Amino acid sequence: MSLDKKEYGLSLEKNLTALVDKLHRMSYTPLPVRRVYISKPGSNKERPLGIPALEDKLVQAGLTRILSAIYEQDFIDDSYGFRPGRSCHDALRALSQEVEGGRTHYIVDADIKGFFDNVDHEWLMKFIGHRIADKRVLRYVKRFLISGIMEDGAMIASDKGTPQGGCVTDSRQHLPALQP
């Protein structure tokens, strides 16, 4: 059962204590994400988003902090996507400065079609396993990857891909205040 933000906040300390206890006992299991579709700007297509349950967002936020602390140092300064303290406006400002500086003559817009839908779980786990030794962290990442998708009342298993919309795949998302 998933509580909404207001309900969770009514017994916040008790709920957080229970959540931390489940995490320590390795008994926490993420719920399937709720699939919704949003319009894709500039086309008639829709982009699928996975909306995690509130507690899943809390746990994902913790995992995001761990992963960011480990991997943030690897990114180059010109990388803006899904990074803390950076936005699409920052990227556009940097692009504008480059173009207006006269050193750029071509701009190429590239997108990997369906990237998030096709992430190979096994490869991803091997990749992060090179830098993360804590088996508990690895198990929770794997649990989120395989938690599934709830769409139109039907549960869809996830053997590949990672839904866009959660904290782990979108570190720009901020946790809402839990206090009512």
Task: Describe the overall structure.
With 180 residues, the chain is α+β, with helices and mostly antiparallel strands. Helix content is 39%, strand content 11%. The chain contains six helices and four strands, in the order ααββααααββ. The protein has a four-stranded mixed β-sheet, with no helix packed on it. Strand 3 and strand 4 form a beta hairpin. The longest helix is centred in the middle third of the chain and has 18 residues. The radius of gyration is 19 Å and the shape is globular. The chain starts with a helix and ends in a 24-residue tail after the last strand.
The biggest beta sheet reads: 4 strands, mixed
The proportion of residues in beta strands is 5-15%
| Uncertain runs | 169-180
Shape: globular
Percent of residues in helices: 25-40%
H/I helix tally: 6
Number of extended strands: 4
Order of helices and strands: HHEEHHHHEE
Task: Quote the distance from N terminus to C terminus.
Answer: 19 Å
How does the helix and strand content classify structurally?
alpha+beta
Average pLDDT metric = 86
Strand numbers in spatial order across the main sheet: 2-1-3-4
Task: Give the C-alpha Rg.
Answer: 19 Å
Task: Lay out the secondary structure.
Elements: H1 5-10, H2 12-24, E1 33-39, E2 46-51, H3 54-71, H4 88-100, H5 121-129, H6 135-145, E3 149-151, E4 154-156
Parallel strand pairs: 1-3
Antiparallel strand pairs: 1-2, 3-4
